[in-house]
Amino acid sequence: MAISRTQLRWLIAAAAAAFLAIIVTSTLHQTRIKYEVCVNYRGGQHCATAEGSTSDEAIRSARDIDCELLSTGRDDNVVCLDQQPSSVRQIR
């Protein structure tokens, strides 16, 4: 039995809907970890919070925010990012 064009279109639409549902579900159900990271640099201190799917990702993002706000340029930012955070606290 051959598949008609209409049946083929419905089959493709159903497959596309299933694929989209899998993508949306996996995106929404990612484990989100939230950290607060404080950085002391050149006499200033800043604390930022960030979320990530891993603790390393969340900490790195928060430290990037801190150093961006505490540094005065690209080279200064690189030096700041080499410093260890003064505190790291998991929020959730």
Provide a count of the helices: 3
**What value does the Rg take, in angstroms?**
23 Å
The H-and-E topology, N to C, reads as: HEEHHE
Q: What gap, in angstroms, lies between the N and C termini?
A: 56 Å
Give me the count of strands: 3
- Summing up helix and strand content along with how strands pair, one would put the structural category as alpha+beta
Overall domain count = 2
Shape, please?
A: elongated
Kindly state the mean pLDDT as a whole number? 91
- Unreliable stretches, pLDDT < 50, 5 or more residues? none
- Sketch the major β-sheet: 3 strands, antiparallel
Strand content: 15-25%
Percent of residues in helices comes to: 40-55%
**Main sheet: which strands, in order across?**
2-1-3
How is this structure best described in words?
With 92 residues, the protein is an alpha+beta fold. It folds into 2 domains: 30 residues; 58 residues. It has 3 helices and 3 strands; from the N terminus they run αββααβ. The chain has a 3-stranded antiparallel β-sheet with strand order 2-1-3. β1 and β2 form a beta hairpin. The N and C termini lie far apart (56 Å). The model has no long low-confidence stretch (mean pLDDT 91).
